[in-house]
Amino acid sequence: MALNKPCIMPVGYDLRAFDVLDSTNGEAVRMAAAGAVGHTWVVAQRQTAGKGRRGREWVSPQGNLFASLLYALDCDLATASQLSFVTALAVRDVIADILRTNELVTCKWPNDILVGGKKISGILLETAPPSHVVIGIGINVIHHPEVALYPATNLTDESGLANEGGQDITTTIVFERLVHAMSHWISIWQDHGFFHIRKAWRKNAHGLRQEITVRLPHEEITGRFIDLDESGALILEFEGERRHITAGDVFFV
Prior knowledge:
The protein has helices spanning 24-33, 77-80, 83-99, 155-159, 161-164, 171-192, 194-203, and strands spanning 13-21, 39-47, 65-72, 105-108, 112-115, 118-128, 132-139, 211-215, 220-228, 234-238, 241-245, 249-252.
């Protein structure tokens, strides 16, 4: 990504910026395979093969943010999966700060961010052998898909700044805030564990204690979103029982 000005990175983090990549996650995985060490952000101005959850395409027009953090693991993979919720909190903070609203920006299980109930960001975690995990983050800055699995929006439309003569929202502004928010929440996770992350995520959860529909590979079930368990699974009250769901697509009734 052609940054408009030098980006000051948090201590312990490096940056590699590109004009075009197949995907930032793909480049981060290749870096890990080539022997990369430490934590490195990979950003691109455009992706030709952006990836979403469950093998879906992530539409990647120039002007949106496409970034991946190659994160050096110091824990097992089960614990590393908690980084999905860590990242969601960081992205939520960035979007809430830019839009100057807190109540409208929420976390959708397992790893999307919503503004007013519309998707504005997605997160994708992938393992990167031998010793990293890749945290992919897409944020709709000036574009969003008109036809998608879930209603979508973007920062420029939500802010109205472009129509009021204010400062334009750029990928540079969003990325600079993101890297520092990620460093902040990762430090909290490292120092205090998932308990504090889970508590903060629940506070900002969309649809908690409400009726939702969860689409699974072989069934679709509707029930009450009761809680997030200690592992990050969604607890759904369904036909008098509580079911712990580790993967699925959530829709709000």
